[in-house]
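Listing 4. Sequential folding, example run.
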Amino acid sequence: MERLVGSRPASSASKIQRRATPRDRGQTPRGPTKTSSRLNSPLGSHAATDLGSELELITAAIEPTGGTLTVDIEDGDGWDTDLEDVKKLIEKAKPKKSVPKNSKNKKGKKENYPKRKVLSEEEKARLVYIRACIKFSITPSSLFLRGLKKEQINLQNQGLGPLGTQAVALSLVIDRSVTDLVISGNAIGQTGIRYITDMLMINDNISHLDVSDNNLQSYGAQALSNMLLQNDNILSLNASGNHFNRNDALLFAEAIQFYRFSLRVLDLSHNNFETEGGQHLGPALAANDTIEILDISWNHLSSKGVEAVAQGLKENTSIKTLNVSWNGIGDDGALFLVQAANVNETLEVLQMDANRIGPDGLTNLLQELASNKVLLELKISKNPITTLGPESALQVINAHPEMGIQVLEIQDSWLTSEACRLVYDIQELKPKFKVVHGGFTNAHDLIKASIKKREENCMNDPFLFLINYVNDNRLRWMDLFNRLDTDKNFSISYDEFRDGMKANNIPISDKDVQILMERLDEDHDGAIDFGELLEGQKKYLKRFEKVMGVTTSITSSSPSTRQNSRPPSRQRSRPSSRTQSRPTSRQQSRPTSRTDRTAALTIQQKARSDMETYAHTIQSSNESSMKS
């Protein structure tokens, strides 16, 4: 079982702790590590000096000879960085004494020494991480080592702590491949966020950062805002759940309105900005032109704080999605936002869940949006709108078909029969319109909606695209299987399935490929054989017949048979069935049941009696003629 990073090693890891560290070996760095000018942290030189000095000590242990960075490896073997082989990696990370090549032993024979390989940045980053874990007596994380390969590191809830975060930061100073870093829920504290921000002063390749739920407080807000003022490569930041207060909102406001601010996605939810925090953020949004998705939910903004945000939204030209849920804004605050959305020409999604909006307030909101063609989604779940709110809202939407709203989300509200009728009327004019709701007040409406949903799911099934592709190209299912089975091992792996969809221009996404793999792979061996593919086709056709109630469209588009693939002359020369090839008399004389057998006997007896009567008539006529 993998250990959490930051925890003390067990008995097996204690051996690693007893090995000589770089300081024990008394090696000193030969020169300062080359870093960017961003090494001078805005928090002071102390933080940057700590990070730089630790990096110098660790890299000096990897570079015992100075000059080119090398390490001994075995012939034909690469580097194995899985956690199962972490011991091997640690052994390889130990510095080797440089020995001249092809040296001779005492007997005069040449000795073959291992070859030497120049390390890449990725391999060097792994070695630095392993060295840091040994130095700080913590267990290396397999998730981090795998993330260096995938360019996306997800260390959510791994218990890093400050020391584990320092090891990660030291490695990422060198690495230049990672673009996404998730380090949420690790209790990194003020020390950990200092190492992360100092690392981001040097590493300008990371564009997505998640440091949520780390209890950073005001020190973390200052560190993040200062980092954003100098690093213009961060495109997404999630800093929710860090106990930022109203004064910290001012720090983020200063960063947002800075001319070098480049964030596209900003999540500051689950903090304590309160009314004053909203008043700080409002003017900053008016001056910003880069943020596209902003989440400030769960911040106790109230109606006055949201009013300031709405004023800034009127002048903003970039925000497309705004989430102000769980702020207690009421009907007045919601009306401020809707009026701002009418002035703003970019807002497409507005989420106002759990904000004490009543049925009358919902009706007023939609009346204000009657002429808005830009807003596409309105989410107002967990509000006390009762069953009257959806019905009145749908009446407004039905009366204004030019309204741009395509999705109305009221997840905890029920729809009446009248509301269902209004939904169907709206969908005739706007086919993409839908209502996300909590249920129906009428059983008939529930059954009707359930049938409609099943039909939509059946028509949107990704397997239907495979059937259409086979029919349009006049293929057999064996032909499709051979096209997807590129390595000819009589099975289709996930990669072969995905690449085959793209190579044959079949419009199936990677998510749908995963769904089909899970559905067709009945034996759960990670691959699809030909029998599983045919079985999946049969199951889908049965489901289609059951749900849609028709078989003509699917039957006509079924895969071609062997008979249809033969030449026309051979088809005509062979009888279509065994029944038609039999003589007519044989067909009629062969009974198929007891009832048919009895009827056949009756017919035979009647035929015999008719023949006897006919023979008797002929004989009597002949006798009469002879007498005459």
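-- end of first protein; second protein begins --
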Amino acid sequence: MGVISVGGSIGRLGVGALSLLLVGSAALAAPQAVLVNAKIFTADPALPYTQAVAIEDGRILTVGSNEQVRALAGPNTRIIDAGGRLVTPGLTEAHVHLGEAFPTPPVPMPGLPYPGPTAEQLLAVIEQAAKTRTDWVSATIGPQIARDHRNWREALDAVAPNTPVLLRAFWGHVNITNSEGFRRLGITDDIADPLGGWWGRDESGRLDGGGYEAETIMRRIQPANPERLAALLGEAQQRYARWGVTSIHLMNDNKSLEVTLGGLAIAKPLQKWTIYSWGAFNTRSVPYAWAAIDRVADQRLPKVRVEGPKWVLDGTPIEQNSVQRADYVGRPGWRGRSDFTDAQLREILQLGLTRPTQLALHVVGDAETDRVLKMMTELASAATWREKRVRIEHGDGIGPDAFEKVAQLGLVVIQNPTHLALPPTGGQKIPDHSRVLQGFVTAGIPLALGSDGGVKEQNPFLNLMLAVLVPNDPSEALTREQALTAYTSGGAYAEGQEKRKGRLAPGFAADLAVLSQDVLTVPTPQIPTTTSLLTMIDGEVIFEDAVLMSTK
């Protein structure tokens, strides 16, 4: 196969720079593998594109031309011919929720995801299912139900008086159950609101069926089962490998760290996992969340890191609970609700400054963003915060007027491109500021991309396509190189590992993917059909398609 053209990048680099890349290579043992005849996107500004890469001891030994890298091969070196295909650093799924979400398989509902079933449709399905079940009737709901503020406990009791019912918003911030469900969960009307969440109540103070934030219902219903979780995570790993994903940032909602680490120990990690502990999971107080991290200090696994906590500071505009500067359409006087008081938020931030693990904050509304930035500025200098590298999950409330402050504080934004394609619901638009991507890059704000998928993983190439389209505001679209950078080196930066992985450069981990098509040039609608033909982590192949050629 012939050597592909890479647009003159190697020629522009110059002989002197290339000799620095290869310095001392003659004295080194032959690499374990070389990958040649490729279009390699390195995500390294010093050499964005090249043709070949040599791998030794789990790391990138060198990059360069086909001839230079082939010359390093020895009799036992595996030579992989990429056939002119695009090779990238392994993708990082920078924000995902994986694991069981329902006690029973959900019954089908019409209209999902948007706008979801109407109240009449939902109640008819629940009534029919309850006639033949004594166990939980589970269902996914959309915005129409989440924004319907009727007493859902009474409505569900009327159609399922003796069967427990669990309704869960597909985006996770709203759960609804009936009286029998409350009874089986041991929840009574005198229950206190949990840290970071609240129970819906009628005018008399009786529970009305709703549970908001902090997984108020799910934390009680989720079984602590490492074996079941191992099966789910194991399946997810295999599918991720076929997409070229080599690092996963798991937002550990509904589960304890002990259960998740136990599940991964059984599944045997393929990818590199960073688990962000859930601040409000069974948490009695803000300090207790960090104590949960301390308790698993002896339960660490190869390829697995523990960070966090992650705190959900407000909801989303889908159910109209993210905290906005302006009233929500159709709800005069309602601007959302913060999940934590000022005193609690201050405690979260103060502990984040003193503890070694990385702080992650779910912040969506523009007014909630204002509150966080103001309090951070009051508590510590910008330089201090930059060292902590606080993650802002979603960042939908960061508008142009906040760019400078976010950049000064060194915050890294993990955005989810599917959020940027949310349609209007019942004539009520998602706030305009929640469509930013290119604005972050232009302002110098570090950006990583994740799917926000759950309970199963989501195709990263679908999100890559949405990042280069931004259907709701094409002016915020990324270039394909920018989107791929955010999915590779951006993800590594988001977890503080940018000196170890995320680029194909000498000394970096040999985490890479040979893609089935060139996502930098194929027609945009074709991007989601991309797969990986070979996925490698620390120089070890975790997935390989027979289509690739190899001499040994």
